[in-house]
Write a sequence for this structure.
């Protein structure tokens, strides 16, 4: 014992552990935690990029930004849009992922190729994916409208990404919002697919055999054998996808720019920051957004994930 | 069998009386339906996922006039194929092109730097969490929450201000630093899971031979963890290559620093750039990451879902 004089082996282990993890902590602290705290402080100050040098840590704190942000009707509609988008996007991407995982779990010719294709939307950069959708859905030269008008007999092209409202079977539907939800489901179902497939392949064979012997039909086996086995992964996916979708900015920003009834809160934050240069107000809005998310997660963990956790 | 398995097995309803002479049992109907449904579902999935990318390539090879005349064409007649779009995208701006070669260089620099730095930082961290007992070990997962719970847009505001003040805005290293912070929690988690599978006895043997912790990691743990390192590196590369928001906020004012994603999105705002050229740019942006991903698909998906079995 040259260096660790007077310390137990356990203490030396603890010191090494802290030393090895500290770079991770430091980076997270500098680029995540401190900015986060600063964002919260900025939210209570009147800060613009021009005067930011003079807004010190002990500047004048007030609730003005929050009053301003919460007083705008656009914020509340933005929050509503964000929630609809998040819930629908989360649900659809997991449901589609489940269908894909079930369909591709068994033996299949050309399986590698099929799986590669299914993963494409998730792997491709969001900018490229959003552009192809824009082109395909364009009312002027988009293939979707071309086929719709020519083969399905639409009266006129649909502005999938520019039209706030449209009629479907006599019901008014938010066209652009539904389109960005579809994009979200399309782009992220491979994520759910990967997790569900991995879990499906780990379901013990005996369970299915036992159910077969008991005379369970395929749907019964899915309902009583497969689904209970998947429930924990689905719960995990629900949390992950909810958080990711709620925080999403680029997908919708690239598709619609926040127009036609798709102005999520995160897009409003971006506009306040870049177009109006109002750092304080954008920070306040972002903080409220984060709080809403924390609130929802708290409720979810409290009421839905509770028994799962105690079972561990 | 775990408790959960037993519960699931018990949940199967008791067998109903068999009626061997009835031809169309519920079981048979369901089996037939599913057998017919499965190829349909697979075909629909293939169409939905591959078609947009196929269409992207088709458009990138066409002339924009031809596109407007016939938007529904699903393939290009060989005599109409043009590579002019790609030439236009790739030639430098001074020569009248869009300068994507420069954007690619920037993207490669940022992505490779992010991969190298992330691995450098997360390997010791992951090893510590996997092997060593220290105060706060169990609290490490709060880092995940800190990074993921808060919308990137929240972090973007103070970082935007900070980088403006420090003159780091518009710098590629600054951007790489942000990417590292976004990927660190996941990479620490992925590597930790793998390091735990490395037999302790091998590492102990190295320690007895006189290796310190760093030497043990370098000589024993890392050589045994090559697949996990590859998977983690690819994951970071993918995130950094595809990232858009931070690139937009930090680099937008300086065209020479644009990454491919940013360059493409900025081109779309310019009216004079034809759609077909945009599609060529999209192919240029998509192709590298798709090639990298599928070259190592097994590794990647294995690494991403590691631990999913445990839920």
């Amino acid at each position: 014992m040259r260096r660790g004089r007077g310390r137990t082996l356990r203490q030396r282990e603890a010191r090494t552990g802290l030393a090895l993890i500290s770079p991770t902590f430091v980076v997270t602290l500098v680029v995540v935690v401190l900015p986060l705290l600063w964002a919260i402080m900025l939210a209570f100050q009147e800060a613009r990029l021009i005067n930011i040098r003079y807004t010190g840590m002990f500047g004048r704190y007030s609730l003005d930004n929050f009053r301003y942000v919460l007083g705008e009707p656009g914020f509340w509609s933005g929050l509503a849009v964000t929630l609809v988008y998040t819930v629908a996007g989360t649900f659809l991407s997991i449901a589609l992922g489940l269908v894909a995982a079930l369909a591709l779990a068994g033996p299949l010719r050309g399986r590698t190729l099929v799986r590669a294709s299914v993963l494409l939307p998730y792997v491709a950069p969001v900018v490229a994916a959003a552009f192809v959708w824009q082109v395909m859905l364009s009312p002027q030269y988009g293939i979707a409208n071309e086929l719709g008008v020519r083969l399905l007999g639409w009266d006129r092209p649909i502005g999938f990404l520019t039209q706030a409202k449209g009629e479907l079977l006599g019901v008014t539907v938010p066209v652009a919002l539904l389109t960005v939800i579809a994009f979200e489901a399309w782009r992220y179902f491979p994520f759910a697919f990967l997790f569900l497939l991995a879990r499906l392949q780990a379901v013990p064979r005996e369970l299915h055999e036992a159910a077969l012997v008991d005379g369970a039909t395929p749907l019964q086996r899915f309902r009583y054998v497969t689904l209970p086995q998947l429930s924990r992964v689905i719960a995990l996916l629900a949390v992950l996808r909810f958080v990711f979708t709620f925080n999403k900015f680029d997908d919708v920003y690239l598709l619609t720019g926040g127009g036609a009834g798709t102005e999520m809160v995160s897009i409003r934050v971006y506009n306040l920051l870049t177009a109006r240069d109002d750092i304080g107000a954008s920070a306040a809005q972002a903080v409220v957004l984060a709080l809403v998310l924390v609130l929802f997660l708290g409720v979810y963990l409290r009421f839905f994930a509770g028994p799962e956790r105690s079972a561990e | 069998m775990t408790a959960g398995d037993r519960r699931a097995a018990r949940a199967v309803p008791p067998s109903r009386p068999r009626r061997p002479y009835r031809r169309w049992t519920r079981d048979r109907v369901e089996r037939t339906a599913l057998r017919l449904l499965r190829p349909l579902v697979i075909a629909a999935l293939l169409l939905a996922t591959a078609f947009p990318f196929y269409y992207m390539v088709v458009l990138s090879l066409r002339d924009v006039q031809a596109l407007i005349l016939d938007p529904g064409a699903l393939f290009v007649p060989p005599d109409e194929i043009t590579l002019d779009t790609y030439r236009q995208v790739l030639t430098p701006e001074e020569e009248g092109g869009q300068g994507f070669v420069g954007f690619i260089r920037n993207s490669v620099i940022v992505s490779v730097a992010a991969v190298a730095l992330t691995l450098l930082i997360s390997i010791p961290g992951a090893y510590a969490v996997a092997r060593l007992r220290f105060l706060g070990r169990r609290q490490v997962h709060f880092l995940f929450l800190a990074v993921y719970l808060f919308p990137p847009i929240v972090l973007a505001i103070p970082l935007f201000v900070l980088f403006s003040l420090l003159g780091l805005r518009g710098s590629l290293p600054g951007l790489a630093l942000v990417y590292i912070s976004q990927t660190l929690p996941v990479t620490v988690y992925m590597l930790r899971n793998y390091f735990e599978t490395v037999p302790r006895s091998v590492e102990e043997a190295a320690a007895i031979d006189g290796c310190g912790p760093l030497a043990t990691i370098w000589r024993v743990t890392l050589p045994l963890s090559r697949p996990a390192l590859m998977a983690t590196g690819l994951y970071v590369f993918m995130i950094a290559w595809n990232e858009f928001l931070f690139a937009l906020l930090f680099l937008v004012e300086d065209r020479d620093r644009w990454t491919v994603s940013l360059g493409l999105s900025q081109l779309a705002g310019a009216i004079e750039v034809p759609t077909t050229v945009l599609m060529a740019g999209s192919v240029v942006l998509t192709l590298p990451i798709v090639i990298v991903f599928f070259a190592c698909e097994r590794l990647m998906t294995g690494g991403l879902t590691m631990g999913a079995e445990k839920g």
